């Protein structure tokens, strides 16, 4: 990151930072995408099992890794303020927190996995695939979370092309092991959907060790000597990280876990409906990586400018990022509408499942428009370290408005399973409106502080 003087310079810098993040996010999610689509070619049971496993894993991963995203604004503001000596200490404490979170997830997952799957009225084969898929993923949790911390460090320096390179390097590894383990090629066992979980774990370990190499050996990361100095556990730094990170994590968790809750509620429908619902969610989530990448970029840019006390520049970045996201959201909606039929063919050869996927995709267009507003604003607010009010907004929007609306429409109207999607759309729209209001409040507060000379 560097100081910019003109709008043109800001747009150029924003795009330079954002495009690698976007490619990185698309690459990371492509692993989940290929897990689901390649499993779908193995059969409807494999598609449903992997899709359900992914829907349960995604909110846990995004929510708890969201806690670690606090590393980005912490480091960005430290660098913007010229306090570079704090960076290695912050990163190491983040790695400690990542390790603890990983252990907690593994223990909790071991205890809760069977009861949670037992709440769903799944056919035995779907239940088996989902269970063993998640067990396989469990062996990759520690490297995945520690990689997240190192990635936040790399991105906070504006070196987003490095994480892009690492992700693009890992993607063919994931595809290769998916191919040989799902379909039993080249002497490997034919594991179906369970093989997708093993392939993901192998990939997580690969990207972790490659990231460690870059951080320890390649400039400008190596000059911070992250692994050269031993730092003991600092509860004060943990507290700072968790005070900022927990609201971020819970905000993301409430947004993503509502999809898992809908999956649980939709288990009353047949396997074809469940598979179609999960396939459509999978593709819509793939496109969600666009506003999410813009949000990550805005956190870096806004955090850097706020740390340097250049609040007007931070506001300019905010406006540009949101308008870019809205434009891309419109394009994403057009892509879904125009390509819904070939997209359904990526997931299944079953005509019944394909028709249902296409119907669900029409509803997902409205996701793109709400996410194009809400998600970038969340990134801006994180750059300001304003996380508590957005957390409450997410809780109310998704769980007190969106989910009850969906339940009523699905069970007491003719909408059936599509009622849950209308509820999701409602929650996202309410959250977008609330976050827009919050952004105005924060920017007005900053304006007043500048006027008063604070």
Automatic annotation (TrEMBL):
| Transmembrane parts of this sequence | 12-34, 54-75, 87-109, 129-150, 162-182, 194-215, 241-266, 286-308, 320-339, 359-377, 389-412, 418-437
Q: Name one GO molecular function term.
A: xenobiotic transmembrane transporter activity
Q: Which family does it belong to?
A: Belongs to the multi antimicrobial extrusion (MATE) (TC 2.A.66.1) family.
Q: Which GO terms describe its biological process?
A: monoatomic ion transport
Top-level lineage group = Bacteria
Q: Which UniProt keywords apply?
A: Antiport, Cell membrane, Ion transport, Membrane, Transmembrane, Transmembrane helix, Transport
The identity of this protein, by name, is Probable multidrug resistance protein NorM
Q: Which Pfam families match?
A: MatE
Its main localization is membrane
Q: Name one GO cellular component term.
A: plasma membrane
The function of this protein is: Multidrug efflux pump.
Q: Report the membrane topology from the UniProt record.
A: Multi-pass membrane protein
Where is this protein localized, as stated in its record? Cell membrane
């Amino acid at each position: 990151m560097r100081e910019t003087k003109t709008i043109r310079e800001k747009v150029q810098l924003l795009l330079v930072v954002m495009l690698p993040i976007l490619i990185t996010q698309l690459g990371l999610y492509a692993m989940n995408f290929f897990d689901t689509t390649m499993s779908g070619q193995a059969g409807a049971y494999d598609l449903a099992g992997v899709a359900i496993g992914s829907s349960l894993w995604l909110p846990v991963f995004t929510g708890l890794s969201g806690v670690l995203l606090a590393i980005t604004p912490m480091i960005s503001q430290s660098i913007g303020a010229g306090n570079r000596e704090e960076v290695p200490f912050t990163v190491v404490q983040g790695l400690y927190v990542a390790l603890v979170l990983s252990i907690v997830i593994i223990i909790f997952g071991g205890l809760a996995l069977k009861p949670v799957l037992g709440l769903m009225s799944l056919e035995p084969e779907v239940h088996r695939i989902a269970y063993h898929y998640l067990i396989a993923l469990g062996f990759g949790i520690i490297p995945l979370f520690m990689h997240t911390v190192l990635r936040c460090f790399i991105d906070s320096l504006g070196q987003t092309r490095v994480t892009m390179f690492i992700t693009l390097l890992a993607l063919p590894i994931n595809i290769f092991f998916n191919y040989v383990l799902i379909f039993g090629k080249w002497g490997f066992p034919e594991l179906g959907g369970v093989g997708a979980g093993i392939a993901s774990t192998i990939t997580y370990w690969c990207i972790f060790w490659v990231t460690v190499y870059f951080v320890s050996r390649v400039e400008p990361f190596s000059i911070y000597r992250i692994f050269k100095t031993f730092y003991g556990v600092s509860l004060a730094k943990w507290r700072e990280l968790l005070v900022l990170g927990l609201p971020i994590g819970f905000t993301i968790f409430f947004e993503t876990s509502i999809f898992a809750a809908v999956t649980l509620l939709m288990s009353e429908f047949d396997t074809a409906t469940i598979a179609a619902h999960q396939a459509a969610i999978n593709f819509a989530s793939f496109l969600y990586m666009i506003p999410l990448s813009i949000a990550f970029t805005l956190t870096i840019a806004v955090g850097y400018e706020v740390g340097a006390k250049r609040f007007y520049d931070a506001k300019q970045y905010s406006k540009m990022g949101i308008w870019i996201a809205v434009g891309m959201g419109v394009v994403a909606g057009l892509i879904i509408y125009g390509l819904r039929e070939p997209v359904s063919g990526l997931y299944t050869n079953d005509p019944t499942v394909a028709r249902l996927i296409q119907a669900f995709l029409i509803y997902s267009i409205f996701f793109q428009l709400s996410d194009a507003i809400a998600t970038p604003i969340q990134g801006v607010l994180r750059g300001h370290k304003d996380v508590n009010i957005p957390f409450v907004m997410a809780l109310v929007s998704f769980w007190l408005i969106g989910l009850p609306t969906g339940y009523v429409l699905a069970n007491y109207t003719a909408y059936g399973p599509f009622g849950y999607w209308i509820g999701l759309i409602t929650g996202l729209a309410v959250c977008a409106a609330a976050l827009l209001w919050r952004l105005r409040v924060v920017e007005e507060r900053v304006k007043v502080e500048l006027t008063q000379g604070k």
